[in-house]
Amino acid sequence: MKGKELKSRDIDSLFNGFLRDEGSIILGFKKDTITIGHHVFKGNIKDFSLINPFFNANGALYFRRLFSKGSRLLFVLRPCEIRAYVELIKLTQMEREGMIAISVDCPGTESVKETKGMTSLPEDIRDYFKEDTPKRWACINCREKRGVVGDGGIRLDKDFNMWIIPYTEKGEALIATLEGEWTDVPQDMAIKQDKEPEVFKTDLDMLKKDLSKCILCMNCRDMCPVCYCVDCVFNTDEYLPKGDALLNKILRTGEVDLPQGKELFHLIRMYHVSQTCVGCGACEEACPQGIPLTKYFKGISERLQGLFSYMSGRDFNEPIPYTTFKEDELKNAED
Amino acid sequence: MAESIKNKNIEIVGFACSYCSFKASEMAGSLRMKYPEGVKLIEVPCSSRVDPAFIIKALIEGADGVFVAGCHPGDCHFIKGNYYTRRKIAALKEMFNAFSIDGRLRLFWVSASEARRFVDKVTDMYNNIKEKKK
Predict the structure, then answer these.
(1) Are A36 and A67 contained in the same domain?
(2) For residue B72, which residues of chain A lie inside 8 Å, CB to CB?
(3) What is the pLDDT of residue A234?
(4) Given an 8 Å threshold on Cβ–Cβ distance, is A274 in contact with B91?
(5) Which of A149, A184, A219 is the last residue of a domain?
(6) Fewest CB within 10 angstroms: B2, B34, B88, B108, which?
(7) Same domain, A179 and A237
């Protein structure tokens, strides 16, 4: 695979060169002395950071219903965020025209919730890759930490030299603006391919126990990057009735626990995102009650994606399993 | 769910495609075949109209079993609807397996002329669930 070596000063020249055009925007991470987080750069990339060691939200959340309208957009984000971007494109929630997505090798992230705010940002990129920093459950069990998704990737070899590699023509056009020779990228990278996930198995009682804390604030749904429906079924009175509709339901069917429909809400959401879930853990991060949602959503989605040998966000051209079919498959589906 | 629902007879919700399975159930009626009273049929324009959310809702809110019945693969009135159904229901079954919920969801292929097959499948499912509940 061909790529270019990326020196620290090259980052500035590459991205500033991209921003020289009027109407060009970069979404990435901004690091200053106090905080680090998502930032939209215009004009120049002051305080730009390739890696953000803290997770608060999945960046693809801001992409929904985004259309470039003639401007050029560049995303320099984590693999999980770029994977969600790929899924949103397949779901026609975004326009691929004018957008370039670059994924950056991710050493794993720490929850902002547990650190009570963002502290101690290391200066050197190597420090992010130290083993001893506490990581979120979703990151420890991540399926794809390598920057191998999207239009291009920024990867680190084992000596922590940065490499920028194109995966599509768009990425190639961007990287062509960078000075330097196209060379073969080393095989040995700082982040290796993750092992295949184990088959997830649990039971309904376990789910009920974990959801006993749920207050149905639906923050998990709102912060999920791929839970994109404008008219969610749970916004109406059909699935989780409120007020009068709830009273009518109780008079009709019998007593209910309140808040009602916790398992219903999470199971239906789990099914709806099953093929597009990237396992980023934004739902768990958004949960005010600290319910281990990632375990269920990631486990179920990986199991259901495995049924169709699919992986969310891996490829722009791989259709989402529920939107396609093969005539000769699933012979034992019928009972 | 509430106790009052638990003590009731077994209730099975069935989503039947109006072009084949629902016609088969009508034919079963006109041929005086009997299938259990607890089976409540819902007519849908195509089996792929059934969002798995309907099935999850039916099961969580008290139904003992749910089945989806559609045309045989390749015979769909809308050309390819039941291929999508097959994928969706297979995935939903996989999800139920992960949560250790077995035997409460079934998928049948029944054409309009197969009244006997419809009755057999439904009765078998009813008896199966009844045995498990004891």
Answers:
(1) yes
(2) none
(3) 93
(4) yes
(5) A184
(6) B34
(7) no
pLDDT digits (tens, 9 = 90+) for A172-190: 999 999 988 899 988 888 8
* Interval A33-84: pLDDT, tens: 778 889 999 998 988 988 888 888 999 998 888 888 888 999 999 999 999 9
A240 in the same domain as A162: no
- Residue written as token pair 């009813």: B126
Domain assignment of residue A335, yes or no: no
Task: Count structural domains, chain A.
Answer: 2
Do A66 and A172 sit in the same domain of this protein?
yes
Structural domain of A240: 204-323
B87 vs A110, higher pLDDT: B87
Q: How many domains does chain B have?
A: 1
Question: Taking chain A (335 residues) in consecutive chunks of 10 residues, what is each chunk's mean pLDDT?
Answer: 87 92 91 86 90 89 86 94 95 91 91 69 72 82 91 90 93 91 88 85 93 94 93 90 89 85 94 94 93 94 94 93 93 87
Same domain, A258 and A298: yes
Looking at the structure, do residues A221 and A93 belong to the same domain, yes or no? no
Which among A254, A270, A325 is the nearest to B80, CB-wise? Answer: A325
Structure tokens at A116: 């009570």
Buried residues in A65-92 as b, exposed as e (16+ CB within 10 A): ebeeeeebbbbbbbbbbbbbbbbbbbee
Nearest to B98 among A200, A256, A308 (CB): A200
Chain B contact present for A334, CB below 8 A:
yes
Domain containing B74 equals 17-129
What is the C-alpha to C-alpha distance for residues A60 and A50, in angstroms, rounded to an integer? 16
Q: Distance of CA A293 to CAs A101, A141, A286, Å?
A: 28, 13, 10
Q: Is A196 part of a structural domain of the chain?
A: no
Measured CA to CA, the distance from residue A269 to residue A220 in angstroms comes to 10
A170 and A232 both lie in a single domain: no
Is A112 near chain B, with CB under 8 Å?
no
Q: Residues A214, A179: one domain?
A: no
DSSP state of B10: P
- Asked if the peptide bond before residue A321 counts as cis, ω within 30 degrees of 0, the response is no
Q: Reduce the secondary structure of A43-57 to three states and give it as a string.
A: CCCCCEECCCCEECC
Once rounded to an integer, what is the mean pLDDT over residues B18-23? 95
